[in-house]
Amino acid sequence: MGHTNINAPRPPARFAHASEREFARLLDFYAIRWEYEPRSFPLERDGNGRVVESFSPDFYLPDLDLYIELTTLKQSLVTRKNRKVRRLRELYPDVRLMVLYARDFRKLLAKYGLPPLPSSEAS
User: Fold this and answer.
1) What does the pLDDT look like over 30-87, one tens digit per residue?
2) Phi, then psi, of 82 in degrees rounded to 5
């Protein structure tokens, strides 16, 4: 779904949230290669080995070997995501993951002169 060649045309990604779209624009502006939700990491399996819980980070930056998860959700939902992030780090210790919380994302937008997202679009 993401792209690997910043100069090649690609179909537009279908972002779940406006914050993801803005983050992708920022990466494109700085010519940082990215992929959108390229992989799901199984976190829990049932007795038959079927995946019952997984985690799909929002972005992968292949040149940095880094996954990025944007968490601009309401605080009440952040606890569940933090649990998934902890579990991912336990099961996949070699996977590099950075979580950007709402306050981090707002600072990032401000730093690069981008307008803040309306609160209805940030979650």
Assistant:
1) 899 999 999 999 999 999 999 999 999 999 999 999 999 998 666 667 888 899 999 9
2) -60, -35
Q: Domain residue spans in the chain? A: 26-122
Pairing between β-strand 66-71 and β-strand 97-101 as defined by DSSP bridges: parallel
Distance (Å, whole) CA 83 – CA 91: 12
Residue 57 class from Cβ within 10 Å (0-12 exposed, 13-18 middle, 19+ buried)? buried
Cα–Cα dist 2/85, whole Å? 21
> Which one-letter amino acid corresponds to residue 108?
L
Q: What residue type is 75 in one-letter code? A: Q
